[in-house]
Amino acid sequence: MNRRTLVLPAVIGLLAPVLAACGGSDSGSGGSGAIVVGTTDRFTASKDAPAPLDPAYAYDVGTWNILRQTVQTLMIQPRGEGEPVPEAAERCGFTDTGNERYACTLRDGLTFANGNAVTAADVKYSIDRARSLKADSGVFALLSTIDTVETQGDREVVFHLKTADATFPYKLSTPVAGIVDPDDYPKNKLRDGFELGGSGPYTLKADVEDGELVKAEFTKNPDYKGTLEVNNDKVDMVSYKDADAMGKALDKGDIDLMTRTMSPDQIRELSADADTDVDLVEMPGLEIRYLGFNTDAPTVKSKAVRQAMAQVVNRSALVSKVYGSQAEPLYSLVPATVTGHSNSFFNKYGEPNVTKARSLLDQANITTPVKLTLHYTTDHYGPATKKEFEVLRDQLNSSGLFDVGIKGTPWDTFRPAEKKGEYDVYGMGWFPDFPDADNFLAPFLDADNTLGSPYDNSQIRNTLIPESRREADRLSASASLTDIQDIVAGDVPVLPLWQGKQYVAARDDITGTAYALNSASTLQLWELGRGVSG
């Protein structure tokens, strides 16, 4: 048995054949029972986030991976990557030469899981609802280029855009554009708790304890119509407190597959151990990690402080000590494998250099050592995060220019505090909404950005982002995208650190694992099946 499988990246822009199928297929695990998937993602309904699964609010990879199984979108990322293809829609496309009018025709006979018909009016309601609620997660910003949504009969939807946006089809493939039933989702408030309904490939039953979703039971929707072939009848997703607990569950046979988030040690052990009935699948990923700055905070308000940190941090040493071959140093917000990437931070700062960093601080009359606290989340990006921040702290402190402490906080406390501007410097990760350079730049730099960052560069917002979105050929947008990355390297509102690979570990009777995750870390449970071990 080939214990370790490497999934090679799809060619960017290559459109794989679309599987024209529906959820009524007889394929799948049949009487073998549910396929059980482990995750360390935590799903909590709290005072600060009472509606974690509402498409108008949800904006992290864990909640999106629940929504993508249940709430249908007009468009979807195809199995083999490439440009989005119709999903709830029968067809979609720009109807003008300026990329400002986009029209979709719904599939005939679509219904929500509760039996209600899906109409163009429901699409308009869902999109307008997310735009008007403006949830503090910032997810509504993905729809910011929409001016108005028009319906023509029960199946035609027309989006009139404020400005050209070649990335709009990608945005219609994200859960914030998910189609919801107006009977279940009030217009003027979020839907609290873990109730969820849609027209996607699965229905959801949520097992909740003390305000936390501990198990999500996905059952194949017999009335689903779309492009996806559903290869199983049921999948249970179980949430574990950490990677060790999840790994033990896999060893015991309590779960069939685990992915987010394995520890580096687990991945190394699985890679080395050939005598096991567990397969490790490695695939390229677009996950990035970075430091964010509250640029209004006194400690980092001076650009020189942020530039000095960029000059001192040694990404190669950080990756080597913490992640080994599982990650690569990153010198831009845009990953190296995405069209439009530029090594802007390396071009500006080169190799780590304490002398240059000291000069930056001296020229700005900054007294050293600069006292800072680096904040990180203890339970959202995996068990190696603490070690990562210990290495960052030591690198900065060893320069003699900084006096850095670190502090870890659980995600359900960390994220609200970050959005409120309570942290001067904080560690975050980003799993793209869609695989385009725009989605690694606009969410951090545009108005209503996901970080709630006060950083505002008018050239980026008013000229370069709109300019880049006019180019349907994304290679033609590279000049504008490079200019954005160069400005970010100079101003350092964020400091990119590394780009990671992604992994799935599964028992060897589970099929479809090579497609269980796409490059944007979307969990595609419909790909999984149960075969013969050995």
TrEMBL record:
Coiled coil stretches, renumbered: none
Protein keywords: Signal, Transport
Taxonomy, superkingdom: Bacteria
Gene Ontology cellular component list: ATP-binding cassette (ABC) transporter complex; cell envelope; periplasmic space
Position of the signal peptide: 1-20
Primary localization: other
Solute-binding protein family domain: residues covered: 83-449
InterPro entries associated with the record: Peptide/Ni-bd, SBP_5, SBP_5_dom
Alphabetized Gene3D superfamilies for the sequence: Dipeptide-binding Protein, Domain 1 (3.90.76.10), Dipeptide-binding Protein, Domain 3 (3.10.105.10), Periplasmic binding protein-like II (3.40.190.10)
GO BP terms in the entry: peptide transport
Annotated compartments: Cell envelope
PROSITE patterns given in the database record: PROKAR_LIPOPROTEIN
GO MF annotations, alphabetized: peptide transmembrane transporter activity
Keyword Signal: yes
A Pfam short name: SBP_bac_5
Protein family according to the UniProt entry: Belongs to the bacterial solute-binding protein 5 family.
Protein name stated in the entry: Peptide-binding protein
